[in-house]
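Pasting as-is:
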Amino acid sequence: MGTDRPVSAEALEERELVLSAQAGDHTAFAGLVHRHQRRAYAVARAIVLSHDDAEDAVQEGFLHAFRALERFRPEQAFGAWLHRIVANAALDIARRRKVRDADELPETLSSPHRDPAESGELRARLARALDTLGERQRAVIVLHDVEGYKHAEIGSILGIPEGTARSDLHHARAHLRRQLSNLRSEK
């Protein structure tokens, strides 16, 4: 028994692009890439924290998605499927590269109300604190607090239950509070 939910025009258009891409239309796949490029990059960047690594993960993710497109079921959400592939590619890159550069922290974490020197120091401290989190907790907190994903979306992207995403977010925030509190007391 299915539910009769209204389907948006955008969802119908995306489904048509998916079906065309599955039939071999490269222009349709390019349209899917265009639609999902920014969010795919945000997913990857949340995991690897490096612009270059995020771009590599997005490229690997789109390539893998293209190769696996025939196995995608159009009744599923294409975005969630794609973002999970990109997240897995980013996790693979993160495992290969453990060294992070604090200067590569996403610009969205800086505050326009701070003096630039203080902002740079704060960003470096936050980057170090984020780096003490495990890959999954770091991805969850950045996807939620920076990118605005909901718990269910994060669960789908990372391949974890929604409750685990909530729990990881809670634990990541508590850990960051402790880390940043320690950094504040060092000042």
